[in-house]
Design brief:
Blueprint lengths: L9 E7 L2 H5 L7 E12 L6 E9 L9 E3 L2 H7 L7 E3 L2 E6 L16 E4 L2 H16 L4 E4 L2
Parallel strand pairs: 6-8
Antiparallel strand pairs: 1-2, 1-7, 2-3, 3-5, 3-6, 4-5
Length: 144
């Protein structure tokens, strides 16, 4: 299995740990889900990249202002199901790439990624993410 470079906009399969699960003492996510890479930077010491991902969920968001609905056409392009899905923007998992929580894409052995969000859509997502975090609503969960 080949592990891709952690590029922003990449949608990958990941065992996401929700912030409330982390606060409750859990160390592993309960479910593998698509997640979007929103930040990736190389460590200054030359080590692995530090990556932040945001989760994709079918559950309607508790805070709609902190979520971004994925269009059906983009979900089809990525090979995701037809149910409505939202990217949750007020929390991230942060980890050293590749970490232990990458998972193979269901039905695609050997692949950890679904593909990239279209650039214009990713830019819209990022603008909303920045606004949510500027308002002080963001929470980061470390996964090392």
């Amino acid at each position: 299995m080949s592990i891709p470079d952690p590029q922003i906009g990449l949608v990958l399969s990941y065992s996401y740990l929700w912030h409330h699960e982390h606060r409750a003492g859990r160390q592993e996510g309960a479910k593998n889900r698509p997640c979007v890479v929103v930040f990736s930077v190389l460590r200054p010491d030359g080590g692995n990249a530090i990556v932040r991902v945001v989760p994709v969920t079918h559950s309607p968001p508790e805070k709609p202002a902190a979520a971004f609905e994925l269009p059906a056409a983009v979900k089809r392009y990525l090979g995701l199901d037809a149910e409505r899905s939202w990217v949750i923007l007020d929390e991230v998992n942060e980890f050293g790439w590749p970490g232990f929580d990458l998972r193979p894409v269901p039905g695609a052995p050997g692949s950890f990624t679904y593909g990239f969000l279209p650039p214009r859509l990713f830019n819209q997502l990022m603008a909303k993410l920045v606004e949510v975090w500027k308002q002080g609503h963001g929470k980061a969960t470390p996964r090392d």
